[in-house]
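Check these lines:
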Amino acid sequence: MTYIKSKSSILKLLASITITLFCIVLFPSAVKAEDNQAAEVNADITLSNQGSISRMTDGSYNTKTTFSSGDTITITSSEKMYSLYIKWDLIPSEWTLSYNGKTETNGTNGFLHEYVQIPDGTTEMTITFASKESICDMHVYSKGSVPEDVQTWKTPCDNADILVFATHADDEILFLGGVLATYGGEQNLSVQVAYMCEFTTSAKIREHEKLDGLWESGIKHYPVCGDFPDLYSQTLEAAKKQYVYDDVKAYTTSCIRRFKPLVVVTQDLNGEYGHGGHMLFSHAVAESVETSNDSSVFPESASNYGTWDVPKTYLHLYTENKITMNLRLPLSRMGNRTSIEVQTAAYKKHVSQQWCWFYVSDDYEYSCADFGLYRTTVGNDTGNDMLENITTYEEQERLAKEAAEKESIESSKAAEEASIAKEQQEIKAAHKETSKRKVSVAVIVIIVVIIIGAAAFGYVRLQQSRRKHSRRRR
């Protein structure tokens, strides 16, 4: 009995080992994924100006270390470093990074949160400043995929599937957030966000929170922003006295022409809860989509980018041609969270605004799920998809590539058929020429035979004639 139990245990153990090895061979990605995760490197940092290292590595936007032109930061580690991540206090001017005997210029994209890859890795690097700069936070990472909260921004879109206009940082989440998570995060489309108001000169922390919120929403293209201050009013008329309305329209028109969006989304014409700035910006966008295809309106941006006629424009809470987005579906690319859950997490990134009563919801009067189709050149909607009747830029590129490949195949086929036809014609012509030659040779042979026959006949007659003459003489 003991022997049988022991044998059974051994068989179970062998079966377990076999299954484990089989899973490792069959599904290696799970094991590899963990191996490919980059970790933060505990590097040694030396500042040439003897400034505070802790104030630039404590994870806070409220602390910083400032550097002058010519100052350097040297970072060393026994472990190879493959990337550098800096959160600047303000958008930096150009700066250089030296490692492995070469020097690279960075700061060219105008990113407040800047990620730099070091493809071959290094154990020592030096940052050199060309002007006065301040760093709020800095990290270096080992080889592999960096943590999800490291913002590896792409430059603003060349062509945007969707262009989202928001008056302030956090408006894009509270009122338009369903668009960000659904189309930018889950569907991975080119979604570009354009803000009206800047906070660099008033509340710098909100510029950081803006980026953190967008990244949490799944947006990968760096946002653009107007140079308008944040001013509060309660009516459209009051807002028009605070801002130069034509300047705002020039900005919205320029964004439309620059990004050539297939869909434009912006805020409520009534300013959601009655904010005059929201009213002003949404009215500016609504007017701009009507005139952005006219080169005589704001001709400078028409000269820079050309004109553009937006196929579809949606306004938040617009009561005509209404659509209601389903924001309760799990989004696989967003960790199986719903759009509401994603945007709730994104709004929490706006730490400085958590004292406000605002919240993300799809079932109250400012629902981020409710929009209306304000203008269309491609027909009305029959469902709740903003991309109905729209072919995204990626799909257009795919179709164009397919058409080009098909054309290339057809062209090659036509060329091959033409080549075969030409070859057949040449063979036919050659056969014809050969036949002609054969006929000519045959004719010549016949003529020669006739001549030879005639000559032989003549010779025979001549001989016969001579013999006759010879007999007579005898």
Summary: Residues 393-473 form the longest helix (81 residues).
